[in-house]
Amino acid sequence: MSAPLRRAPALLVSALFVAAAVWPALREPPRDSFPLSNYPMFSTVRDKPWLDVIVGFDAEGEEHEIRPNLVANIEVMQAAQTIRRAVRARRAKLLCARVAERVAADGELGHIVRLEVQRRRFDPRTYFLDPEVDPDGATPLAVRRKARCRVPVAKDRS
User: Fold this and answer.
1) Range of the domain at 120
2) Could you name the domain of life of the organism this protein comes from (predicted)?
3) Of 42, 38, 40, which Cα lies nearest the Cα of 24?
């Protein structure tokens, strides 16, 4: 067998590896895939996302953050996923009621009288800017209320 024919399998395998490494960059639309990725989270312009949140309100209507441990646990991403799943499964009202019970039992949040599960749309390009540069960067572009519930009056705070 001649030398070029003996090298053909190695050249073919090499060409396949090169093609596999380049292929993710050519996919449209870009998507993340293990083990080969074109890292779309960094390489594409993202639309304005909707984020699901739970917001507390006091008697004057002022907004207050609800800590992740009152939603799921202290992990922010797990709390966010809990809210997202409840909204998608149309169980936002049930989640709202459960979180309201936890808020009522929490000694620091006695001023919160109601909760809302909301979908908020943000512009990621301005969200993290300095408030002095763009005071409205962290202000939602749109808000959709998915559920609303009252915080029960705890026995020790009545």
Assistant:
1) 50-157
2) Bacteria
3) 38
